[in-house]
Amino acid sequence: MSTPEREETRDARQLENLLAAAVVLVLVLGAGIAGVAVAVRRGPDAAPQFAQPLTAPVSPDPAARAAWADAAAGPTGVPARALVAYAGAEAGAREELPDCGLSWATLAGLGRVESNHGRFGGTALDDAGRPVEPIRGPELDGTGGNREIRDTDGGRLDGDTTYDRAVGPLQFIPGTWAEYGADGDGDGVSDPDDLDDAALAAARYLCADDRDLRRGDDWRTAVLAYNRSNAYVDRVRREAVGAATAAP
Could you tell me if 181 and 192 are in contact, meaning their C-beta atoms sit under 8 angstroms apart? Predict the structure, then answer.
């Protein structure tokens, strides 16, 4: 049986060891190795079956991406101009959000479900990546299963001064665009009707909260944030996998 004196000595040594470990942890984090701590905190992927489809990284060169898009349009069924936008957003996210691991295939899945890649209602993308006829969702007036969202932008983006509407080929509501809007093509304008801009904005939205889309649990959470429906997630995934599999 330990004497009180020996217990006090043992407790003092344990406290010294804990303090030393805390100092080491602070030094490690300060040295920029915080990723180790994050990896331990995250733990195993809770939904690996939803992992983002594997694709080769797109080229950083716009001309090479355009050539790839021309070759991939036929096999994937995705218009070449839409693929240019999705690939450009992947390249932009690789610079802006390198830990997210976004693939163009995820954006292609979203684009197919949201507007058939800018072709909803029989329209099509022009050479600038904009639908020839603007794509607008219904009034978000609380009917038809939609939320009620009163006008937030004075009708500037959606043309509606009473309620908000989803805008453009990736269907951004004005409030979300105000937070995540992007200038994906570098023309000095941030426009949800421009698929280059909308694709990069969608990348920012999907990658929010430090998500890593190469993890199935993060990928599923990201797509659910776009539309809180399991059926929606499943369809986006089918479309993303199909595009990734068919691409040359």
Answer: yes
